[in-house]
Design brief:
Helix content is about 50%, strand content about 0%. By secondary structure, it is mostly helical. It has one domain: Orthogonal Bundle (Aldehyde Ferredoxin Oxidoreductase Protein, subunit A, domain 3), CATH 1.10.599.10. It is globular.
Length: about 190
């Protein structure tokens, strides 16, 4: 059970649509660390079977993880609602403002995270990866989950991928960032 050659990281993702999407679209595959850990949040907030809006959900967890990985801070300090996080995005923006001596906003963090997602996609595209590589094992897509609170669930992956690609601004047919997005973010091909 793997995505892009990396073993799936400890979560049964049938019935956890955000985690399933994260495993499929992550630049390095089945790593539970790569683009956040939506499973923990979506079980608590009751959105685990949602499809619509899951792309934005995963985009936000991915950006949060990417920013914290770049800063080498513990991502667990950002779990929970924004007002309950130990190190939320507002504090991260304040930290960067102090560090660099120029103003950083939460929007700047989101843009930086999106820029990194685009750069990772460009690297993978250069290596021959396409939308078709953003996939999961057939068992998760076709074989219904046999038990538990999400018994009978399968991963509606194509719908989830489209929702994510729309949320991040990628081309739906290729799953890659278009030149217009790269230009807006200041990313060279």
């Amino acid at each position: 059970m793997h995505a892009k050659g990396m073993e799936l990281g400890g979560y049964e993702c049938r019935g956890l649509n955000g985690q399933a999407l994260q495993f499929a679209i992550s630049a390095r595959g089945g790593c539970h660390h790569a683009y956040g850990l939506p499973a923990r949040a979506e079980v608590v907030d009751g959105t685990r079977l949602n499809v619509k809006g899951k792309g934005e959900y995963v985009k936000n967890t991915a950006i949060g993880r990417i920013i914290r990985d770049c800063l080498v801070t513990c991502t667990f300090l950002a779990i929970g609602p924004p007002d309950k996080q130990v190190i939320g995005n507002n504090l991260v923006a304040e930290m960067l403002t102090s560090l660099f001596g120029e103003p950083w906003s939460v929007e700047d963090l989101k843009q930086a995270g999106t820029r990194i997602i685009c750069q990772e996609r460009l690297f993978n595209a250069r290596e021959g990866m396409t939308r078709e590589h953003d996939t999961l094992p057939a068992r998760l897509l076709k074989e219904p989950k046999p038990d538990g609170p999400t018994k009978g669930a399968v991963v509606p992956l194509e719908e989830l991928k489209d929702d994510f690609y729309r949320a991040v601004g990628f081309d739906l047919s290729t799953g890659n960032p278009p030149d217009s997005l790269l230009h807006d973010l200041g990313v060279d091909r």
